Amino acid sequence: MDNNKKSIPVLIIGLLLFIGIYFYMHNRKMKSVEKPTLYSIGIVKESYAIIGYFAYDYIYTYKNKLYKKTGSSNKKQDVGKRFIVKFSKENPVNSELILTLPICDTTLTAPELGWKKIPKYLICLDY
Q1: Percent of the chain at pLDDT exceeding 90
Q2: Please, is 32 exposed, middle or buried when counting C-beta atoms within 10 Å of its C-beta (0-12, 13-18, 19+)?
Q3: Hey, where are the domains in the chain?
Q4: What's the confidence (pLDDT) of residue 2?
Q5: 96 within 8 A of 85, measured Cβ to Cβ
Q6: 74 alpha carbon, distance to own chain's centre
Q7: Staple partner for 104: which of 14, 57, 66, 124, CB 3.0–4.6 Å?
């Protein structure tokens, strides 16, 4: 067998492995924020580039406890920007910053116990 014929199975195995890892990570992320879900305000504290994507650190509070998490996106996030954060009531460490729901008013604060539904008046319409 020459090198071209040997590389085809390696490429197929690599592609299948990549697809499997993608679906595993996607499914894991979907399960990370369990029901019941609450909402709060998350603030981007740091944003940095990593090979192929951008990562950012964000903070939010629930029951007067500060949580710091890391997320990723395909573009760099502006430090200080505020977004809705979705988190698990049972395990508040499991959260997701919803980058499609920015908050324009920098004076608003979230209630200590969060919101059960996303308050529409918070969302910036011209983002």
Answers
A1: 57
A2: middle
A3: 1-32, 34-122
A4: 62
A5: yes
A6: 11
A7: 124
